[in-house]
Amino acid sequence: MLQLPIKQSISCGVLIFAGPKVKAINAESLYTLEEVRAVTKASASCGSCTGLVEQILVSTAGGDYNPSETEKPMCACTTSSHDNVRDAIINEKLKSFQQVSEYLEFIKTEGCHVCRPAINYYLLASWPGEYEDDMRSRFTNERMHANIQKDNTYTVVPRMFGGLTTPEDLRAIADTADKYAVPMLKVTGGQRIDLVGVKKDDLIPMWKDLNDAGMVSGHAYGKSLRTVKTCIGSQYCRFGTQDSTGMGVKIEEMTWGSWTPAKFKIAVSGCPRNCAEATIKDFGVVAVDSGWELYIAGNGGMKVRVCDFLTKVKTDEEVMEYTGAFMQMYREQGHHNERTAPWIERVGLTYIKEQIVDDAKNRKAYYEGFLESQKYAQVDPWKERVEGFDKESFIPLAEIS
Predict the structure, then answer these.
(1) Hey, which CATH number is domain 225-377, 1.10.730.10, 3.30.413.10, 2.60.40.10, 3.40.50.450?
(2) This prediction's pTM
(3) pLDDT tens digits, residue range 251-262?
(4) What are the structural domain ranges in the chain?
């Protein structure tokens, strides 16, 4: 009989008991992960219990299911895997969802909630400056550029580069909170301030007020660069060996606005005491006496993963180059909705080191590719919508009809 780890089996509401899932697999003759999701909803939300569902399939379906298969279809609309789709986009110069759907002969020509966001991202990453982001292929948070809450209000998060702020910015946030009667202000783990409980009708005027005060979107809602967390570093800390706040600000100024396969977090610690928790971030920078140590593919979420050591560098310029190169490699090769932690477990640390540590020419090419893509990515979506872009998303359907 399949033995599920107790903590994992009760952490997901769908998998409290394996018994009903086994019965469903037998009764419905289910042999794939997608079929189980469709019938039981197991692993269909956050996906953290996918491994457990696959264990159940192995135990129940036996030789009819192979979870190690690398060419799993992206979704039920196609037989093509994520890698097949990305290769086709590049090799065949496909520049719209319709072109991808037609070329790969999708079963469902209009796609679904799985493939449309994925392909929208792959097109955006493959053709910066050419492909126009398709808002219809994004979920609510990314369409609205704010996090929706259970009462249908939203959370608005201005960006604070490197976690730094000023009295002027704090006054602007306080004035905005008063003006729109924001019920909660919350300091986040990413060193920013959430304005929680904002009404939909107040989003655009609130963004205008924040823009006028010099602030831009924090992208707290997106599969994108979220934050660059820092400690105070050598400027004030008696233990600091390097200027971690200055480095964090430079990194965030370079990386903000970049779309990635999943959310991406960076941290910079001013000494090995690691107050910014850099070793559980997607990219971590830790100051030492002789320079900086770089770490990759950590995760502090539902499945904690400590970073792998990438390399040690001496200069700020090298930190910037490695940051951009790693992000671009991940952008080009990671599967949609795949954090860096499962990505590195899929491709291997050795492979990543070969690409961006051992091969300086390749690293520079990734870095230059990242900088090129950022020319088109660093556009504040709040400002765009204040100016009228995508206004239909903010108008009630009754008024549109």
Answers:
(1) 3.30.413.10
(2) 0.86
(3) 999 999 999 999
(4) 6-64, 82-133, 152-221, 225-377
